[in-house]
From TrEMBL:
InterPro entries: EGF, GPCR_Rhodpsn_7TM. Residues 90-277 form the G-protein coupled receptors family 1 profile domain. Keywords: Membrane, Transmembrane, Transmembrane helix. It is found in: Membrane. PROSITE patterns: EGF_1, G_PROTEIN_RECEP_F1_2. It comes from Didymodactylos carnosus. The chain crosses the membrane at residues 77-98, 110-134, 249-268. The keyword Disulfide bond does not apply. This is G-protein coupled receptors family 1 profile domain-containing protein. GO terms for cellular component: membrane. It comes from the Eukaryota.
Length: 277
């Protein structure tokens, strides 16, 4: 049996297409693979970084006010109202603290300024993403140019912010490990020069590793039970999906390993110094 609807299948991500009739079909249905859903299996929850559309999208009731929304959406709005201001205040205070002269005498201070900026940008981008998702589904935001622009850019920028935050935290951990190893021989001037060079290099490399993301994002209209929804989906080939998985794995695993080994080094070296004295 063939599941391609005579070669006219609109199903995505390797889904099987079923028709109500072999000769004169009037409707079709997509049978999704694991980790995919939607009328055309266009939404994916697979991988390290599922989109906010995939997490909350189908919990939103189109054209319904906040009081008529599902408990998931209500809880998401309440949590966002609590977390976003706290995150913004925390990021601003961190930025003010680490911009003082004393922390900026070493590279670690510059890395901490960088993490403050990435934390702030992550909160701001997430707020934009969440607001646009609700507006597009509840208020029927239909400006295609704007929606396409945010579809291509917001998730891309959010991923850059998250990965940059991971790498900068790894740089902080690594420099602290080097500081405790070298002790009084630690060169603050050299550390500062390395940090000023490392931050833009990390930003460029992180951005380049994710440059495929906006290119493969596009809008798709879905009509189900007389309800129209607009989704921002990733429409890519299997090879691009494998590359994206490899990039996610690299960013997560390498930064985690750096943090782990730096922490172990600091603990062991600190214990030896205490024993010596």
């Amino acid at each position: 049996m063939k599941y391609d609807c005579h070669g006219q299948s609109n199903c995505k991500n390797g889904a099987k297409c079923l028709q109500d009739s072999a000769n004169c079909p009037t409707t079709y249905m997509c049978v999704c693979s694991p980790c995919f859903y939607g009328t055309r299996c266009e939404i994916s929850t697979n991988g390290f970084s599922p989109s906010l559309d995939a997490i909350l999208g189908y919990h939103i009731k189109p054209h319904a006010n906040i009081h008529r929304q599902t408990i998931v959406i209500k809880m998401s709005i309440v949590l966002s109202i609590i977390v976003i201001p706290i995150g913004l205040i925390s990021g601003i205070l961190s930025l003010i603290t680490f911009r003082n002269k004393e922390p900026c005498k070493t590279g670690c201070g510059y890395y901490l300024i960088g993490t403050s900026i990435t934390s702030l940008s992550t909160i701001i981008i997430f707020t934009c993403k969440f607001s646009i998702l609700l507006s597009a589904q509840i208020l029927s935001l239909t400006n295609q140019s704007f929606l396409q622009f945010q579809c291509s850019s917001i998730d891309f920028l959010l991923r850059i912010s998250l990965y940059m935050d991971q790498w900068l935290n790894s740089c902080v951990a690594m420099e602290r490990a080097i500081t405790i190893i070298k002790g009084v021989n630690f060169n603050k001037v050299k550390s500062l020069k390395v940090a000023k060079l490392m931050i833009p290099i990390l930003f460029i490399l992180t951005s380049c590793s994710l440059i495929h993301d906006p290119y493969h994002r596009r809008l798709i209209d879905e009509i189900y039970n007389d309800e129209k929804r607009i989704w921002c989906i990733v429409d890519s080939t299997a090879n691009v999906q494998k590359y994206d998985y490899a990039v996610n794995s690299f960013h997560f695993c390498v930064s985690f390993i750096i943090n782990l080994f730096s922490a172990i080094t600091i603990i062991i070296k600190s214990a030896r110094l205490r024993t010596a004295f």
